[in-house]
TrEMBL record:
This is HD domain-containing protein. InterPro entries: HD_domain, HDIG_dom. It comes from the Bacteria. Residues 20-126 form the HD domain.
């Protein structure tokens, strides 16, 4: 999918959900900042970045887990399997799917290469819900605060936090090594 088509698709799906749409636009900007380091995968990451939260759109909601719902929805829209997989596997999706008993549904989408999962997670965690660039630890703190300790998102983000921060560190190291940071 062309990045401009992905942008219009995300906009049409998320326009009624201001926070996810503003956040998704920042995630796209963060992906663009990684484009030099990603080479041939830059467009793939940009497409997945702007579409990563499309699972919150009412037309997509099925299981209640936005990563799986988004990947399924995009698959129905004939998005490339790699895009669907990046959406299904971003951020703390593994932990949330396990807690919700949806690991098999998530596994229907092949795990992308680790460097791409790291990249989309980096983009997500450096983008606030208001569209601002944020520190990853602050972003995780914001999510934990927004969802109470009894909520599945709180529990899974807390459990995934060390792994997610390690993903961010790997991307930052790659940026430093390539002279982009």
């Amino acid at each position: 999918m062309d990045p401009s088509i992905a942008y219009r698709t995300a906009e049409s799906q998320l326009v009624d959900l201001p926070s996810p749409w503003v956040h998704s636009r920042r995630v796209l900007e963060q992906a663009r900042c990684l484009s030099s380091a990603l080479g041939a995968d830059a467009d793939l990451l940009a497409v997945a970045a702007v579409l990563h939260d499309v699972g919150y759109a009412s037309a997509a909601v099925d299981t209640g887990q936005h990563t799986i719902d988004g990947a399924r929805h995009l698959s129905r829209l004939d998005a490339e399997p790699q895009v669907c997989s990046l959406v299904a596997h971003h951020s703390s999706s593994e932990w949330e799917a396990a807690e919700l008993g949806l690991s098999a549904e998530r596994a229907a989408f092949r795990r992308p290469p680790s460097e791409l999962v790291d990249a989309i997670t980096y983009c997500d965690l450096t983008s606030g819900p208001d569209g601002a660039e944020v520190a990853p630890a602050s972003r995780l703190d914001e999510v934990l605060k927004r969802y109470g300790p009894d909520h599945v998102v709180h529990r899974t983000v807390a459990a995934a936090r060390p792994t997610q921060l390690a993903m961010v560190e790997r991307v930052e190291k790659r940026l430093t090594e390539s002279g982009l940071s």
